[in-house]
């Protein structure tokens, strides 16, 4: 983006906000929360967005606090209902999170601002799904309660050196992936890095279920378009195969107590040849892996993924105009390119050439493939409030062997069915 275009964009932001160099309203502070690590693609991009915001808003300071994903996940309803609420924050999308808070009146309806600033024109219908919620808190229609600003999806990361040592080619099917893991087990290597104490494990089980599902199955589960049978062929394949992977030594029983960070570090240290997790790791891996060659490939078929987490403006925000200005900067071509070149998946294709390595460019190209082929299937913990913790606990039991697949699916079914009454289904 040229300096002239950037200057014009910033002037437009200032004009909308009414906060220009000549204003003398006294010092103001924008209170910002997000949970992206400083080395992640989003962390790099948002840090630059903060610098640009302060440069274009004289007299305004950004008070940024990095919060943990789990921390915000568990405390958001309580914090947003207090005087400690931030002005703008990153929050998880879906019925169980943003949808629930919107229904509780804790988030600002930003529909008018979205239209005024043209953000709706920057996002495809599929990407808008997770930003809009009806009066029941169900995603896909109704008012805008957030603005996604990146995309994400689950993929398979692999250690090229370890694959080469075993003479293994890049798998193109789940069966070929299974054969590769058998070969690693025979060589005394636990193939999968897994974090069973947080999201990674239940996302793997969901991926396995998706290998036997279609988009109608996804819509029934995620958007309540029809009845869901948690003992159908897809769900039972997911749970049974996950348990089988533990029995075969693909997944260590010790992983039940590992967090996502532990998983990522173990992969970066070369302890496991495979990690099935999200594109949000890409920039971190690119910066952190020094001792071996690595790459990624798409999971065959439907894949957990969507627009990324989104900016929301709490109802109690004291500086909503500043919050909207900050969001606008994160949606600007310069910041979206920064995100892309740091290894993230931008929502906006600016058309400018990338300075990123081909390895990082791959993540953006693969997202385009998933979007074009309509293969994005959201995430398994979205449908019901509190479902994240239920999913973590249930799949941990498959790792420890304290519950069988049928019992685990019963555990997942109960809160889902109870929530249907709350959404009028």
Describe this structure as you would to a colleague.
The protein is of the alpha+beta class and about 425 residues long. The chain has 2 domains: about 5-150 and about 305-355, D-Maltodextrin-Binding Protein, domain 2, CATH 3.40.190.10; about 150-305 and about 375-420, D-Maltodextrin-Binding Protein, domain 2, CATH 3.40.190. About 50% of the residues lie in helices and about 10% in strands. The chain is built from 19 helices and 13 strands. Strand 1, helix 2 and strand 2 form a beta-alpha-beta unit. Helix 2 runs antiparallel to helix 16 and helix 18 packs antiparallel against helix 19 (about 405-420). The longest helix has 18 residues, at about 405-420. The protein is globular, with a radius of gyration of 22 Å. It starts with a helix and ends with a helix.
> Which parts are unreliable, with pLDDT below 50 for 5 consecutive residues or more?
1-24
User: Averaging pLDDT over every residue, what do you get?
Assistant: 90
Q: Total domains, how many?
A: 2
Radius of gyration: 22 Å
- Straight-line N-to-C gap: 48 Å
Number of distinct beta strands: 13
The total count of helices amounts to 19
| Major sheet description | 6 strands, mixed
Percent in helix:
40-55%
């Amino acid at each position: 983006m040229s300096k002239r275009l950037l200057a014009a964009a910033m002037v437009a932001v200032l004009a909308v906000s009414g906060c220009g160099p000549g204003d003398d309203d006294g010092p103001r502070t924008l209170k910002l929360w997000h949970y992206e690590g400083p080395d992640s693609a989003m962390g790099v991009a948002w840090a630059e967005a903060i610098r640009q915001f302060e440069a274009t808003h004289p007299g305004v300071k950004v008070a940024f606090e990095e919060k943990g994903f789990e921390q915000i996940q568990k405390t958001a309803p309580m914090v947003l209902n207090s005087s400690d609420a931030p002005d703008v924050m990153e929050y998880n999308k879906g019925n169980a999170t943003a949808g629930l808070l919107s229904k509780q009146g804790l988030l600002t309806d930003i529909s008018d601002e979205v239209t005024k600033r043209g953000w709706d024109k920057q996002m495809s219908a599929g990407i808008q799904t997770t930003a809009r919620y009806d009066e029941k808190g169900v995603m896909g229609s109704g008012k805008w309660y957030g603005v996604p600003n990146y995309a994400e999806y689950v993929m398979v990361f692999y250690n090229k050196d370890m694959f080469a040592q075993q003479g293994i080619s890049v798998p193109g099917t789940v069966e070929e992936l299974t054969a590769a893991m058998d070969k690693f087990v025979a060589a005394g290597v636990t193939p999968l890095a897994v974090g069973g104490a947080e999201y990674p494990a239940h996302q793997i089980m969901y991926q396995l279920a998706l290998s036997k599902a279609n988009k109608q199955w996804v819509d029934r589960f995620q958007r309540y378009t029809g009845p869901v049978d948690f003992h159908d062929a897809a769900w039972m394949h997911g749970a049974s195969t996950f348990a089988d992977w533990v029995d075969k030594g693909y997944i260590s029983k010790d992983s039940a107590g590992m967090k996502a960070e532990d998983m990522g570090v173990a992969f970066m240290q070369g302890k496991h040849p495979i990690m099935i997790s999200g594109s949000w790791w890409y920039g971190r891996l690119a910066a952190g892996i020094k001792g071996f060659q690595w790459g990624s490939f798409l999971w065959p078929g439907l894949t957990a993924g969507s627009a990324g987490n989104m900016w929301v403006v709490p109802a109690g925000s004291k500086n909503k105009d500043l919050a909207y200005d900050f969001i606008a900067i994160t949606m600007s071509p310069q910041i979206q390119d920064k995100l892309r070149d740091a290894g993230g998946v931008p929502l906006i294709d600016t058309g400018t050439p990338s300075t990123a390595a081909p390895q990082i460019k791959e993540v953006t190209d693969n997202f385009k493939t998933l979007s074009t082929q309509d293969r994005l299937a959201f995430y398994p913990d979205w449908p019901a409030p509190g479902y994240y913790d239920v999913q973590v606990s249930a799949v941990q039991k498959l790792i420890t062997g304290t519950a069988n697949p049928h019992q685990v699916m019963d555990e997942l079914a109960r809160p889902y069915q109870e929530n249907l009454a709350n959404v009028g289904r």
